[in-house]
Amino acid sequence: QVSVALSSQISSFLRGHRERAHRERTKRIVGGDVPALKALPLSLLIQFHFEVFAQLVTTRHPIFAQFAGYDDEAMVDICHTVFEEVACAKGEEPFYRRVHATKMFILIFGQLAYYR
Length: 116
Fold this sequence. Notes:
By secondary structure, this protein is an all-alpha fold. About 55% of the residues lie in helices and about 0% in strands. The N and C termini lie far apart (about 45 Å).
């Protein structure tokens, strides 16, 4: 026989595990999830990052749109070294209140709800 306290802890863990597993299954696949991309020659990887990120960020953030027209080579470098694709599952928090920001997010798909 299992105590009520232990039963409650196990039940809570299993619910959380089931929810985490569901979130993992519903995440978008991003470049970092594809092992073959890591094997690409650097020149192809740089071009890949440029083609994936350049149009997305230049249509969603005006400073990148202006910069892209000013210095194409620098935009290629920025796309390769700065941008990273991150997928967040529903309910996942990409950032937190009162935590020092170290990144900038540009939302590509979905929506975020802010609560105070």
